[in-house]
C-alpha cells in the first residue's frame, strides 16, 4: 500500500482554498457584511418587516460564508502542524487523524467550490420541487416515489431542511405526484439541474413475466420567491381599448363602449 503523501494533499487543499477565496472575493464579502450590519442596526429597520427579513437573511448568509472560509484556512494550518508533530514524534495515531481530517477538509472545500459556480439570479434561493409520474404505469409511479426518497435523503445527508407539501399516491404502488420545499442556501442552484424528464429501464418487479420496462418521471424545480401584496405596472406598459359589445344584451349593448380590453405591451398578455 502506497504511503499517503501529506505534502501533496495539503498543497492541493491550500490551492483549492485560495482559488475559492479569490472567486468569492473575501474583501468584497467583508465589505458587504459591514454594510449589512449598518443596515441591520438602523433604528427603523423593523418598520418594514419584509425588508428587514431580507437584510438579516443576507447578513446571516454572508457571515456564514466568511466563517466557513476562515474555518477552512485554520483547519489547513492545524492539520499541517499535526502532520509535522506526527513525523517528529513518530506518532502514527496523529498521522492517521491528520489523514482523516484532510479528507474532511477536501469534502468541505468541494462543497464550497460548487457554491462559487452558482451565480445565477435565483441560485441562492430555496427551491420547490415537484415530481410527477409519466408513461410506464405502476412502474412509473414506483419510479416517482424512488426519486422522492432519493431527493429527501440527499437533503437529509447535506443538512438541508426539506418539507413535503403535497403527495398524491397511486392505486397500486408509488405516487402520482409529490411536491416538497427545500430551505437551504443555494438550494435552487444545486437542484435546478435535476429538472426535466428522468427515465428508468429495469426488469419490472410488477410484471409476473419478468419483462424489461421503461418508466418516465418528470421533475420540476422552481425557486422560492417572496410573496408580494401588489405589483406596480407602469402606465406606459399598458394599452387600454374600449369598444362596443356584440351580441344580445339590450338596446344599449351596441351603442355604448362598455367592453374594455387591457394589453400588457411587454408580454402581450390581454385581459378582456
From TrEMBL:
A GO CC term assigned to this protein in UniProt: cytoplasm
Keyword set, alphabetical order: Coiled coil, Methylation
Cross-referenced Pfam families: PCRF, RF-1
Name by which UniProt lists this protein: PCRF domain-containing protein
Family from the record: Belongs to the prokaryotic/mitochondrial release factor family.
Gene Ontology molecular function: translation release factor activity
Top-level taxonomy: Bacteria, Pseudomonadati, Pseudomonadota, Gammaproteobacteria, Enterobacterales
Coiled coil is among the record's keywords: yes
Peptide chain release factor domain location: 84-194
Amino acid at each position: 500500500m502506497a504511503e499517503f503523501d501529506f505534502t501533496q494533499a495539503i498543497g492541493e487543499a491550500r490551492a483549492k482554498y485560495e482559488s475559492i477565496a479569490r472567486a468569492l472575493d473575501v474583501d468584497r464579502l467583508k465589505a458587504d457584511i459591514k454594510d449589512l450590519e449598518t443596515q441591520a442596526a438602523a433604528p427603523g429597520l423593523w418598520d418594514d418587516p419584509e425588508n428587514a427579513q431580507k437584510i438579516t437573511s443576507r447578513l446571516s448568509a454572508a457571515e456564514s460564508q466568511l466563517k466557513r472560509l476562515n474555518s477552512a484556512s485554520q483547519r489547513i494550518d492545524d492539520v499541517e502542524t499535526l502532520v509535522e508533530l506526527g513525523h517528529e514524534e513518530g506518532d502514527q495515531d496523529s498521522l492517521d487523524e491528520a489523514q482523516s481530517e484532510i479528507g474532511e477538509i477536501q469534502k468541505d472545500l468541494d462543497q464550497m467550490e460548487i457554491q462559487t459556480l452558482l451565480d445565477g439570479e435565483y441560485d441562492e434561493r430555496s427551491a420547490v420541487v415537484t415530481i410527477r409520474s409519466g408513461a410506464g404505469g405502476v412502474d412509473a409511479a414506483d419510479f416517482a416515489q424512488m426519486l422522492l426518497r432519493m431527493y429527501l435523503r440527499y437533503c437529509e445527508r447535506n443538512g438541508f431542511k426539506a418539507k413535503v407539501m403535497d403527495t398524491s399516491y397511486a392505486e397500486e404502488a408509488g405516487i402520482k405526484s409529490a411536491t416538497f420545499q427545500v430551505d437551504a442556501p443555494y438550494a435552487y442552484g444545486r437542484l435546478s439541474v435535476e429538472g426535466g424528464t428522468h427515465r428508468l429501464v429495469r426488469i419490472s418487479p410488477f410484471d409476473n413475466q419478468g419483462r424489461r420496462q421503461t418508466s418516465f418521471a418528470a421533475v420540476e424545480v422552481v425557486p422560492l420567491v417572496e410573496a408580494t401584496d401588489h405589483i406596480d405596472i407602469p402606465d406606459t406598459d399598458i394599452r387600454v381599448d374600449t369598444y362596443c359589445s356584440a351580441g344580445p344584451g339590450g338596446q344599449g349593448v351596441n351603442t355604448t363602449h362598455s367592453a374594455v380590453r387591457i394589453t400588457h405591451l411587454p408580454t402581450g398578455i390581454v385581459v378582456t
